[in-house]
Write a structure and sequence with these properties.
The complex is a heterodimer.
Chain A (H helix, E strand, L loop, with lengths): L2 E14 L2 E14 L3 E6 L5 H8 L7 E3 L4 E5 L5 E3 L8 H6 L4 E4 L3 H4 L6 H13 L3 H14 L5 H4 L9 H14 L4 E5 L7 H18 L2 E6 L2 H7 L2 E6 L2 E7 H6 L4 H9 L48 E2 L6 E3 L5 H6 L1
Parallel strand pairs in A: 3-9, 3-10, 7-8, 8-9
Antiparallel strand pairs in A: 1-2, 1-4, 1-5, 5-6, 10-11, 11-13, 12-13
Chain B lengths: L6 E17 L4 E17 L3 E5 L6 H9 L6 E6 L14 H8 L2 H7 L4 E2 L5 H7 L3 E4 L13 H12 L5 H14 L16 H13 L5 E5 L7 H18 L2 E5 L3 H7 L2 E6 L2 E7 H6 L4 H8 L40 H5 L5 E4 L2 E3 L13
Parallel strand pairs in B: 3-8, 3-9, 6-7, 7-8
Antiparallel strand pairs in B: 1-2, 1-4, 4-5, 9-10, 10-12, 11-12
Helix pairs in contact in B: 5-6, 5-7, 6-7, 7-8
Classes of the chains: A alpha/beta, B alpha/beta.
Chain lengths: 336, 367
Amino acid sequence: MPTMLSVENLSISFRTDEGVITPVQGVTFAVEAGRTLGLVGESGSGKSISTKALMQLLPGTAMLGENTRMTYTDKGGKDIALGHLKHGSRELRRIRGGEIGMIFQEPMASFSPVYTIGNQMMEAIMLHRGLKKREAREFAVEMLDKVGISNAAARIDQYPHELSGGMRQRAMIALTLSAGPALLIADEPTTALDVTIQAQVLDLMRDLQRELGMGMIFITHDLGVIAQIADDVAVMYLGTIVERGPAREVIRNPQHPYTQGLLDAIPSVEHLHDRLKPVPGDIPSPTNRPTGCPFHTRCAQAIPGICDAQEPVETTPMPGRAVRCWLHSDKDRSAA
Amino acid sequence: MTSKSDTLIEVKDLSVHFPIKTRKLFKTEAQMLRAVDGVSFDIKRGETVGLVGESGSGKTTVGRAILRAIDPTDGEVIFHRKNKGDIDLAHASEAELRKVRSKMNMAFSEGGGGIKVHTLAGDLLRAFRPEMSLVFQDPYSSLNPRMTVRDIIAEPLVAAGKIKDREKIDARVREIAARCKLNLEHLRRFPHAFSGGQRQRICIARALVSKPKFVVCDESVSALDVSIQAEIVNLLKDLQDEMGVSFLFIAHDLSVVAQMSHRVAVLYVGKFVEYAPTEKLFFAPKHPYTHALLSAIPTADPDASYDPIRLQGEIPNPLAAPSGCRFHTRCPFAKERCSAEQPDWREIEPEHFVACHYAEDFDFSRS
């Protein structure tokens, strides 16, 4: 499958009262058409703002690093440098929504409360598909039907507050997909939903992706959800990707101590009486990022004098896998 | 089976209804939202009872009604004490209550009969407060940013007014802070300096400082990251072993509840559908809803089969709760009887309660 999005060395800094902070440092990943990349990490790991950078949705105080390259190959096969699109330009508007769609965690906050669902869908359809109003309405009903909203022809005239949480998230998916994006970014789309509804929405997203052949970036903190939906996974900690590879292999055989710790900490309904194994310590604040490997303050295997001093480089412990940890880079260490 | 004297909290037919007023053109219509509708269960000394259910099922309302943070519409909440045969505070008249008030602290700590929590009012309720406590979900919004950690933890003691001596309060605060793995130097700081996990430890210390017998943990670990959540779960378990406190552990995350609880109750649109010891509930559930909930948990094992039972439709609006069994609109096994007749709350095996007409017909057990 061809790579549709490649992000290299993405760094994002903010100027704050306490000086410049860099919550995302040197993030590299790629998305292939028809595949799902899962971005996992705990709060403050930088998973959301990394994808917001793609869409130029960062606040004005944000600065991208000098070596940041974000290349998106559009439906026509043209390479577009996402970092260089001008705000308000025709090109950016075409990409945002039309080429790359986005679904957020809280559907109530992403719909406008003063327009009907249909109104908001038709706006996107007319802009990105160039349809007339009447055709756009028909198309919107079709999309609502596709995401499993019963009685779509009537629902289309309802306001967002009239729908339940699960319905609203379905409507959000319908809205995003009605613009026909080739790449879908889903930012914690099921986190606010109950488990039975989450199962429905995950099903739906998987089916639609298969049907439409989209690439997808699925952001979540839940490794259980990753195991169910992602083909590839990138584990983030304090703004860097510490491990990436095929989701199945990473979960089966994690190489980075953080990934291992995260997997061990998950409570399970299978082993009721085992004591949980927390990752010791607290997540450092982004204003106080540890030197060297960001995880060394909580890592049981940290090597004094190395892990706290030098930032590890990405190595390939086995084909298709990448990990940023000194335990896996003996050669680099002696050279450094 | 354990004897009745081990029971700490007994909840009988608890209901909480809220009037919802909708303004139509010329009149106001009042509807009753039956947030909790006839819930019965008990909690033993030193036990954790888990309460699960989807949003809007009434979990939080059950917890708050027991604590009398919300007044129950109907039903009883009885707080049992070990040594029986003292004054029955719940049935004392107003004049008698005034007389006892000065001896209240003693009366509560040395025991009489069961305290009918649902009838307590005014000073009596206030005097009873230190026996029960609450840990909230969001450790960021439940700590006053203008108070030091010491003052936050000491507040329940100050409010109860039992201990007046500042040094004694300090000693108690230091003791509980150490148990909750907070450094003594933290006590002088303000909450903003702490991370989510540390803040939740402050909330737990505050809840336990008055040595309550019963604490409601309402989604207390849900807002925390996985790596931190495990630590708080372990801390709560340790504190329970040391202090013998009972927990009502409310959460929507079934796997956390499985780790924490001795027994688990499943709530659906204001009613219990199942209540059983944790192992029975998780490995041999009897209610189709419990079974569907369990099947919907995504596990982090890529080889485990994940085939959630697809429940049709959405959780019903409690304002228009379905007739008969409330789950019949989504239940894959629903028959005619289910929409007509409300299922009884019955004990089909010792300690295993379920509300389903056909519970005996199902075998949802897994190895």
